[in-house]
Amino acid sequence: xxxxxxxxLALLWCGCAAxxxxxxxxxxxxxxxxxxxxxxxxxxxxxxxxxxxxxxxAGAGRxxxxxxxxxxxxxxxxxxxxxxxxxxxxxEDRAAGSGEPQGPPA
Amino acid sequence: MAHRVLAxxxxxxxxxxxxxxxxxxxxxxxxxxEAVVGGSLAVLGGVAAEAVRRxxxxxxxxxxxxxxxxxxxxxxxxxxxxxxxxxxxxxxxRGDPSAVGPAATPARPGGHDGDRPxxxxxxxxxxxxxxxxxxxxTPGACVLDIAGRELTVHLLGDKAAPSAVERALxxxxxx
Amino acid sequence: MNAWLLAACVLLPSGxxxxxxxxxxxxPARRLPAMALAGVMAVAVxxxxxxxLHRTSYVDVALVTAVLAPTGTLVFARCLAGGARAEGAGGGx
Lengths: 106, 175, 93
Prior knowledge:
heterotrimer; Multisubunit Na+/H+ antiporter, MnhF subunit (chain C); transmembrane helix (chain C)
């Protein structure tokens, strides 16, 4: 059990814990906007930590760069998708509140 | 005129270079034919980036605040993840987690009964888009809408205490 | 069976299960968070499987998923907004 192996496993378990927390939050939180918050631990902590673990395990090189790019992509796209989804939910609530019948989307 | 040409060349060249480097790193070992294909597609990507720059004129305001907020991000991430875990444990302890949104009448637009109301805040001189992205990256806040300098944010948990990221951005909460 | 494959086997039902469940209930826009999280979970499972089975080609699948899953979510959000905007503005775009 070398140090890199131990570090990789530690990062792996942290990343998996964050992902499982996200799933639990999505399943258990009672309100729709609360469930929107469940995305953040997965995209900001879970997948980047997982990619870091895999990169540590792979050692320096092209494979590690690829994994880190995947982690960075997920971390950057996470907040953007969350905002877009939040906006759609707010718009749907507004339309439902004003009582207009929603036709099929254009 | 020269300034515009320079900006165009910098954008196209910069983005093409970045995309080509990504292509080399991520996708392939380089044979000359693959390099040509990757290079031409990278140039196409650079042209697309230039089109976006002309349409959107992106500028970054308030770099120092954004840097401070970025530095505050890791601590806030861990703290608010812990908060989320506590909220999930509480929800699990309460039992009966199912809450299918009622298809009929919500009490008011923007939420249904029992949902927390949405707080509004105004960051000072920072770029609202990047500030919103940094705020949404933390589990405790989700930005729902951006109107000028005003962000409509949904908060999880304690409303009275702004997070470290929010304080670093200089966000205030009117009324 | 190594630690990576074990993590993938744990993550597949317990990560994707709640996402699928939530994606089947509620108003259309309220199913979107579940859909987005399912995409993120898929990326994680692909990466872990790639390492666990020693097949580096699965990392390319994870890369493509990491790019396309948010794009798909944006498409769905645009689709949902299209109907509302057409109602409000009287003929969107």
